[in-house]
Specification:
By secondary structure, the chain is α/β, with parallel strands linked by helices. It is built from 8 helices and 11 strands.
Amino acid sequence: MGAANTTNLIVIPARLQATRLPGKPLKDICGEPMIIHVWKRAMEADCGPVLVATDDHAVADVITNNGGHAIMTSPDHASGSDRIFEAINKFDEAEKYKKIINLQGDLPVLDPDLVLNVASLLADEQVDMSTLAVEIIDETEKTNPNVVKMVGTKMSADRQRALYFTRATAPYGEGPLYHHIGIYGFQRQSLKRFISLPPSKLEIREKLEQLRALEAGMRIDVAIVETHPLGVDTQEDLEKARQILGQKHTC
């Protein structure tokens, strides 16, 4: 799916004010800032142009100095979704790009194929949003509230339609549980509608933004994949990312 013949646009929101790991996008991994590793993984997916949406000139400079495209956005956005919507409207006023991939800026060891998985579900115009999930193998994750579970109805061996997302252990009974992976695709008009909605009651209760879409009747399809990318939220995660990438490159 080459970038020249697609309507996909990949946007990576990045801000420096992370609570648990301040300055996260610029943390060094094998001689390069983390945001560069994420940008490279997105470029490797080769399914559309890649933007970094940031409110910090240091992040923007790193991207542009490496040949990438950065968009400066307001520092007042409440979420990454709001930030990417501002960025795409600045970059593409003519609305050429109809399918938007929201790729988190803390996934330096991401498998680029996961971006393709998210993008492929948007080929169905009835799908408002797309995302990923992986079957939970570690028993401790099933009861861990930090592991968000996706409850869905099966459409095929590797695709489900989301019914709910929760921090609880769900669904009850025998059968697999799925760990939600927070990479999102949006039809452009669905993203516009999504950010116009106020936070919903279940979203506030579970602290899960995607529940706003489900409560508003939006359709979210989920690709079931085999691997969960490492998200860097702590110093320990950062060391793991350095170790993983150090095995591929000379640090």
